[in-house]
Specification:
Layout (H helix, E strand, L loop, with lengths): L4 H8 L4 E7 L2 E2 L11 E6 L2 E6 L13 E4 L3 E15 L2 E14 L4 E6 L5 H10 L3 E3 L4 H5 L5 H16 L14
Length: 178
């Protein structure tokens, strides 16, 4: 049963949507450490296409749910949260990239994935489309310091609490419900 874009937006008011981002024809992580993806979010030349995942296989459905033009986006916010997760059967702190897309209609969609490598690409893409990008933790600066992605993860694990001070963004998250 296919849901409509309106139903998706209603659902996203109460949830953080676990997604697989697709940029330049490439997927971000296919296997997420803790949560199965709810949808694929494809960033294309003319906007964003959202396609649901099949519930069992997690494969992308053939028919897209809807499309959001870049002109319909007011701003984007990027930040990182921490969760307790399991990596290679060991408890660990796992970092997640949060992307909140604020629409001109006043609605927003809060996406989450575990690919911090996407930060520079997302900032560049939205910047080219003249969309305001809010980066309260200065992730663009951290990513541009020529650290390896492992060093970025380590730096954020150690410093995320300090970076979040004054931003009113909870750093720790236990679930996907708002």
């Amino acid at each position: 049963m296919m849901i409509t874009m309106g139903e998706f937006l209603d659902y996203s008011k109460k949830r953080i949507i676990q997604t697989v981002f697709e940029l330049d024809g490439n997927e971000s992580a296919k296997i997420l450490r803790r949560y199965a993806p709810f949808c694929y979010t494809t960033l294309e030349e003319n906007g964003i296409t959202i396609t649901l995942c099949n519930s069992l296989s997690m494969a992308k459905q053939k028919e897209s749910l809807g499309h959001i033009s870049y002109q319909g986006i007011e701003s984007v916010q990027l930040f990182v949260t921490k969760k307790i997760g399991v990596v290679f059967s060991l408890p660990s702190v796992v970092l997640y990239l949060n992307v909140i897309i604020n629409l001109n209609s006043g609605e927003h969609i809060h996406f989450e994935c575990d690919e911090l490598e996407l930060i520079p690409k997302l900032i560049s893409l939205f910047g080219k489309e003249n969309i305001v990008v809010h980066d309260p933790f200065n992730l663009s600066t951290i990513m541009n310091e020529k650290m390896s992605i492992e060093q970025v993860h380590e730096y954020l694990r150690k410093n995320l609490d300090e970076l979040s001070k004054g931003n009113d963004i909870p750093v720790w998250r236990m679930n996907l419900v708002k």
